[in-house]
Protein backbone atom coordinates (compact mmCIF):
# COMPACT_ATOMS: atom_id res chain seq x y z
CA UNK A 1 0.00 0.00 0.00
CA UNK A 2 2.87 2.39 0.78
CA UNK A 3 4.22 2.05 -2.77
CA UNK A 4 0.69 2.53 -4.18
CA UNK A 5 0.31 5.76 -2.18
CA UNK A 6 3.69 6.99 -3.44
CA UNK A 7 2.66 6.32 -7.05
CA UNK A 8 -0.75 7.93 -6.46
CA UNK A 9 0.83 11.17 -5.24
CA UNK A 10 3.26 11.23 -8.18
CA UNK A 11 0.29 10.69 -10.51
CA UNK A 12 -1.45 13.63 -8.84
CA UNK A 13 1.59 15.85 -9.54
CA UNK A 14 1.39 14.93 -13.24
CA UNK A 15 -2.32 15.81 -13.23
CA UNK A 16 -1.60 19.16 -11.53
CA UNK A 17 0.71 20.09 -14.41
CA UNK A 18 -2.14 19.72 -16.93
CA UNK A 19 -4.35 22.26 -15.09
CA UNK A 20 -7.53 20.27 -15.81
CA UNK A 21 -9.99 21.14 -13.05
CA UNK A 22 -11.99 17.89 -13.05
CA UNK A 23 -8.94 15.64 -13.25
CA UNK A 24 -7.27 17.48 -10.36
CA UNK A 25 -10.42 17.42 -8.21
CA UNK A 26 -10.64 13.62 -8.57
CA UNK A 27 -7.45 13.21 -6.50
CA UNK A 28 -8.90 14.87 -3.38
CA UNK A 29 -11.48 13.99 -0.76
CA UNK A 30 -14.50 16.28 -0.71
CA UNK A 31 -13.31 17.89 2.55
CA UNK A 32 -9.59 18.00 1.68
CA UNK A 33 -7.35 20.73 3.09
CA UNK A 34 -4.20 22.35 1.70
CA UNK A 35 -2.22 24.26 4.32
CA UNK A 36 0.63 26.56 3.29
CA UNK A 37 2.44 29.13 5.45
CA UNK A 38 0.26 32.15 6.17
CA UNK A 39 1.25 35.18 4.13
CA UNK A 40 3.26 33.20 1.58
CA UNK A 41 4.04 35.11 -1.62
CA UNK A 42 1.75 33.06 -3.86
CA UNK A 43 -1.28 33.56 -1.61
CA UNK A 44 -0.56 37.28 -1.22
CA UNK A 45 0.09 37.92 -4.92
CA UNK A 46 -3.04 36.05 -6.02
CA UNK A 47 -5.19 37.18 -3.08
CA UNK A 48 -6.11 33.58 -2.24
CA UNK A 49 -6.15 31.85 1.15
CA UNK A 50 -3.05 30.03 2.36
CA UNK A 51 -5.37 27.41 3.90
CA UNK A 52 -7.68 26.03 1.25
CA UNK A 53 -10.56 23.81 2.29
CA UNK A 54 -12.49 21.54 -0.03
CA UNK A 55 -11.79 19.67 -3.22
CA UNK A 56 -13.29 22.42 -5.38
CA UNK A 57 -11.20 25.23 -3.85
CA UNK A 58 -7.97 23.25 -4.20
CA UNK A 59 -8.67 22.23 -7.78
CA UNK A 60 -9.63 25.82 -8.66
CA UNK A 61 -6.31 27.07 -7.28
CA UNK A 62 -4.18 24.51 -9.12
CA UNK A 63 -6.06 24.70 -12.42
CA UNK A 64 -6.82 28.41 -12.66
CA UNK A 65 -5.10 30.56 -10.02
CA UNK A 66 -1.60 29.04 -10.06
CA UNK A 67 -1.02 29.86 -13.78
CA UNK A 68 -1.93 33.52 -13.15
CA UNK A 69 1.39 33.90 -11.24
CA UNK A 70 3.59 31.11 -12.60
CA UNK A 71 3.20 32.09 -16.24
CA UNK A 72 5.52 29.72 -18.13
CA UNK A 73 8.46 27.33 -18.02
CA UNK A 74 7.12 25.65 -14.89
CA UNK A 75 9.16 22.60 -13.94
CA UNK A 76 9.51 20.45 -10.88
CA UNK A 77 12.65 18.55 -9.93
CA UNK A 78 11.92 15.90 -7.34
CA UNK A 79 14.63 15.58 -4.69
CA UNK A 80 12.94 12.75 -2.83
CA UNK A 81 9.62 11.01 -2.44
CA UNK A 82 9.09 9.02 0.75
CA UNK A 83 6.05 7.00 1.75
CA UNK A 84 5.05 5.48 5.07
CA UNK A 85 1.53 4.19 5.43
CA UNK A 86 -0.95 6.89 4.44
CA UNK A 87 1.67 9.67 4.36
CA UNK A 88 3.80 10.65 1.39
CA UNK A 89 6.51 13.29 1.68
CA UNK A 90 7.71 15.07 -1.44
CA UNK A 91 10.87 17.18 -1.55
CA UNK A 92 11.17 19.23 -4.72
CA UNK A 93 12.50 22.34 -6.38
CA UNK A 94 10.05 24.28 -8.51
CA UNK A 95 11.24 26.63 -11.25
CA UNK A 96 9.15 28.96 -13.38
CA UNK A 97 8.97 32.32 -15.06
CA UNK A 98 6.61 34.58 -13.14
CA UNK A 99 4.04 36.85 -14.74
CA UNK A 100 6.29 39.82 -13.82
CA UNK A 101 9.15 38.28 -15.81
CA UNK A 102 11.16 37.23 -12.77
CA UNK A 103 12.73 33.81 -12.54
CA UNK A 104 11.33 31.73 -9.68
CA UNK A 105 13.28 28.89 -8.08
CA UNK A 106 12.32 27.63 -4.64
CA UNK A 107 12.58 24.44 -2.60
CA UNK A 108 9.46 22.83 -1.16
CA UNK A 109 8.47 20.02 1.14
CA UNK A 110 4.93 18.65 0.92
CA UNK A 111 3.37 16.17 3.29
CA UNK A 112 0.40 14.40 1.73
CA UNK A 113 -2.02 12.59 4.04
CA UNK A 114 -4.25 10.11 2.25
CA UNK A 115 -7.63 8.86 3.38
CA UNK A 116 -9.66 6.25 1.56
CA UNK A 117 -7.21 6.29 -1.33
CA UNK A 118 -7.49 10.05 -1.93
CA UNK A 119 -5.55 13.10 -0.76
CA UNK A 120 -7.16 14.39 2.42
CA UNK A 121 -4.59 16.94 3.62
CA UNK A 122 -1.49 18.60 2.21
CA UNK A 123 0.94 20.52 4.37
CA UNK A 124 3.26 22.69 2.30
CA UNK A 125 6.56 24.17 3.44
CA UNK A 126 8.89 26.52 1.54
CA UNK A 127 11.34 29.37 1.97
CA UNK A 128 8.76 32.16 2.31
CA UNK A 129 11.31 35.00 2.41
CA UNK A 130 12.92 33.80 -0.82
CA UNK A 131 9.49 33.48 -2.42
CA UNK A 132 8.59 37.05 -1.47
CA UNK A 133 11.83 38.39 -2.98
CA UNK A 134 11.20 36.67 -6.31
CA UNK A 135 7.49 37.51 -6.52
CA UNK A 136 7.56 41.12 -5.29
CA UNK A 137 10.91 42.42 -6.61
CA UNK A 138 10.67 44.10 -9.98
CA UNK A 139 12.38 42.20 -12.76
CA UNK A 140 15.90 43.36 -13.50
CA UNK A 141 16.15 45.14 -16.83
CA UNK A 142 18.98 44.31 -19.16
CA UNK A 143 18.54 47.14 -21.69
From TrEMBL:
Limits of the SnoaL-like domain: 13-121
Taxonomy, superkingdom: Bacteria
Cross-referenced Pfam families: SnoaL_2
Signal peptide: none
Protein name: Nuclear transport factor 2 family protein
